[in-house]
Design brief:
The complex is a heterotrimer of chains A (about 190), B (about 140) and C (about 240). Chain A is mainly α and about 190 residues long. Chain A contains 8 helices and no strands. The radius of gyration of chain A is 19 Å and the shape is globular. In chain C, the strands form 3 sheets. A 4-stranded mixed β-sheet of chain C has the order 5-6-7-8, with helices on one face. In chain C, strands 1-2 form a two-stranded antiparallel sheet. The chains are: A mainly alpha (about 190), B alpha+beta (about 140), C alpha+beta (about 240).
Chain lengths: ~190, ~140, ~240
């Protein structure tokens, strides 16, 4: 049978998520590599916000992908692999955070607010960057539990109950944390309208 | 486990004798089974169409400790699994093959070469040797 | 602005928007969480108390703005990441076992007792994907086997999920893929394939390498192909 591979106009790197997730779940390492390259940066960015620094991001994202490779066969809807991967890395990041401080504080008034990773350089004073930077700063200055709830709800798309499960908190506490986080963020972003 | 009773057939008895001589370890591997494993692996690399050799048996964590204790530090467990059970030598290999050739043909070739090797070196002749080749990848 | 120690009562927050302060009464008794949930539900089912409250409308527009900003934050975070570290990638790929999804052993000759040759389900899926890889404009995704593949000659059906470029003829593509799969499996295995069921989901455009994916169109299902060569009827997906 003639091999037409070379003439194929589209490469696996352009395949859709459902196809890639299905192939990777079946053991296709090449398809898995495409997913790693496609969603690695997103997962890095998200886990950096959760961890509060870039220190452990490499390890956390690598651990997430190793788990993802093993668990992909359990993902029923391959098209949802992007949010599924965010959840996997979320869990790894939370594990890492718990390992840092075994005695968890529900709220951490006593902990100094995290400083934002990036500073606003003179070149980045265009309004877009200033606004994004402001949001970044506001998030970094939230108490840790509020920030976790906010990131998990607003970016990773967890439900209230799922957040409660992951953080081992009552759902009412999660609602309280989110309410405060949202009020805080909205109020502090108002000057940037 | 190694069976060294005198009820073995002559062919099986020769295996049993050499194994009893060397002495088995808790995981069943011996210097003899290891050298067979290495020889079979080398043989497989020469088979046209064989593109990869995968670890045949993922070792459970508990066994790894024993294996490492009985082998030199630099030596990883063999890719090809060789064991003796009830006087029968069992060889299992997990390979990848080239899609350009029918997998059945390549696999059969690999299987027969292993069986021929075992017979020709006097280690074991069929039916006392059980050779299983598993194709884990075609591409 | 520091926030008080968390407790379980979210109802007494004041939403400050510049010089406007919205309390629970201004929000028709609703909490900020209620309004976010309402926003997320697409303002459905309609809630008159929210829709007719000026305070709620102000809050909802602030929520919408924040959502847009958050989306851009995520894009920026992603784009700001350093270029992919190739040694990190190869380190990762070196740790995942390629035989993790080997599945069951499918006999080629011999038997378990006597030894012989088998091929794993994982290898057969790779054969099937390879058959699709030779056809332009489509990719085979997930593969499933129905039937006892571990028994020689037992009837087996193959189910494959396929994505095609928008505009490709779904029926033709399904037929092409069925033939290619049967061809390759006959070449490499001794499986008794009684049907190849193809589910096609077409995508508007294939994904950009940076990760944006095309929208999935309707799915069509290809029919079975028996060993006598007959082709079942295909359903066209809506284009």
């Amino acid at each position: 049978m003639a091999d037409f591979t070379a003439s194929k106009r589209t490469s696996l790197a352009e395949a859709d998520d459902r196809t890639l997730a299905g192939r990777a779940a079946d053991g296709d390492v090449a398809a898995f590599e495409v997913l790693v390259r496609r969603y690695g940066p997103l997962m890095r960015g998200y886990s950096t916000r959760l961890l509060g620094s870039t220190d452990e991001v490499d390890d956390v994202v690598q651990a997430a992908f190793i788990t993802a490779w093993q668990q992909l066969p359990t993902l029923a809807d391959g098209a949802a692999v992007k949010s599924w991967l965010l959840r996997v890395v979320n869990r790894k990041a939370l594990d890492r955070i718990r390992a840092r401080r075994p005695h968890d504080d529900l709220d951490d008034e006593t902990r100094p607010a995290l400083t934002a990773d990036r500073s606003v350089s003179p070149e980045a004073l265009a309004e877009h960057h200033a606004v994004q930077s402001a949001l970044s700063t506001v998030l970094a200055s939230l108490p840790e539990r509020q920030r976790q709830c906010w990131l998990m709800k607003e970016i990773a798309g967890y439900s209230y109950d799922q957040i409660a499960d992951e953080l081992d908190l009552p759902p009412s506490t999660v609602r309280g944390l989110l309410s405060r986080a949202r009020t805080s963020v909205i109020a502090r972003m108002e000057p940037w309208r | 486990m190694i069976d060294s009773t005198e009820a073995d057939s002559a062919a099986a008895g020769s295996i049993a004798a050499s194994l009893a001589e060397i002495g088995g370890t808790r995981d069943g591997s011996t210097a003899m089974t290891d050298s067979v494993a290495v020889a079979v692996e080398r043989l497989l690399r020469e088979v046209p169409g064989v593109t990869a050799i995968y670890p045949s048996a993922p070792l459970p964590a508990l066994v790894v400790g024993t294996v490492l204790a009985t082998h030199s530090v630099a030596q990883a467990p063999p890719l090809v699994t060789v064991s003796v059970s009830g006087g029968q030598l069992r060889v299992t290999a997990l390979i990848g093959v080239d899609a350009a050739v029918p997998a059945q043909a390549t696999g059969r070739d690999a299987h027969d070469r292993i069986a021929d090797y075992l017979a020709s070196t006097g280690v074991a002749a069929a039916p006392t040797a059980r050779v299983t080749v598993r194709i884990g990848m075609v591409g | 602005m520091t926030t008080p120690i968390d407790d379980a009562t979210p109802g007494d927050e004041v939403l400050v928007l510049g010089d406007v302060q919205l309390r629970s009464a201004d929000l028709a008794g609703h909490t900020i969480d209620d309004l976010v949930d309402y926003y997320d539900a697409g303002l459905l089912p309609p809630d008159a108390s929210i829709d007719s409250s000026a305070g709620c409308q102000i809050a909802l527009s602030a929520i919408a703005r924040l959502r847009a900003l958050t989306a851009r934050l995520v894009e920026d975070d992603t784009a700001d990441q350093p270029p992919v570290n190739e040694s990190w990638i190869s380190g990762l790929l070196g740790q995942i076992g390629s035989q993790a999804q080997a599945g069951r052993d499918i006999p080629l000759f011999g038997s378990v007792a006597d030894g012989g040759l088998v091929i794993t389900e994982g290898a057969v899926r790779a054969i099937i994907r390879g058959a699709g890889d030779r056809i332009d404009g489509l990719f085979i995704g997930r593969c499933r086997f129905a039937g006892d593949v571990t028994v020689a000659e037992a009837p087996v059906e193959i189910d494959v999920d396929v994505s095609v470029l928008w505009g490709q003829n779904i029926a033709e593509t399904a037929a092409l893929v069925q033939l290619a799969i049967v061809d390759e499996l006959q070449r490499h295995t001794r499986l008794n394939i009684t049907a190849v069921n193809v589910t096609v989901h077409d995508v508007q455009r294939l994904a950009e390498p940076d990760g944006a994916t095309g929208t999935d169109g309707a799915t069509g299902t290809g029919g079975a192909v028996g060993t006598d060569g007959a082709t079942g009827t295909d359903e066209e997906g809506a284009s």
